[in-house]
Design goal:
Layout lengths: L3 H28 E2 L3 H28 L8 H7 L10 E2 H28 L3 H25 L1
Parallel strand pairs: 1-2
Helix pairs in contact: 1-2, 1-3, 1-4, 4-5
Length: 148
């Protein structure tokens, strides 16, 4: 596989971003305030459960490809291109707007990795990332509908 090293580097950054996103979704789930609390509280739980499943898929794919995935908060914070969110109350509107930015970042990064995987002759990783991109696309559509 050509460009395998670059693909693995990007998968590790993706894994770090996904871990930060997972923590942020828990943060929003616990700290959301205001209108839409009930529906968003449940939605954030659904999203962090999905993120947790995706984490496992990415890490296992990296192991299959012969690489060791990042697996510590220190590593995630160093690798991530996603901003953390402090532990404080957040309005439902601000949480959804922040989530839109994060899901755009994840969508765009997944599309980059699809291209890298295809260039590297790795259709399995490309397929996995295509599934993730489709999920981000659908969630972004829902976010846009929610925001009006």
């Amino acid at each position: 596989m050509k460009n395998k090293e670059n693909l693995l580097k990007e998968l590790n950054i993706y894994l770090a971003n996904l871990n930060i996103l997972n923590v942020k979704l828990h943060n929003y789930h616990w700290n959301i305030q205001g209108r839409g609390f009930f529906e968003l509280h449940s939605k954030f739980e659904e999203l962090y459960n999905k993120a947790s499943e995706d984490l496992d898929q990415v890490a296992e794919r990296m192991l299959i490809l012969g690489s060791r995935p990042a697996a510590s908060m220190k590593d995630y914070l160093q690798l991530s291109t996603m901003e953390e969110k402090s532990s404080e109350g957040i309005s439902s509107l601000d949480a959804v707007k922040a989530l839109k930015e994060d899901y755009n970042l994840m969508y765009n990064h997944s599309m980059e990795i699809i291209n890298l995987a295809e260039e590297s002759g790795d259709p399995v990783t490309a397929d996995m990332m295509t599934d993730f991109a489709a999920d981000y696309e659908k969630t972004l559509w829902m976010i846009r509908a929610y925001l009006g």
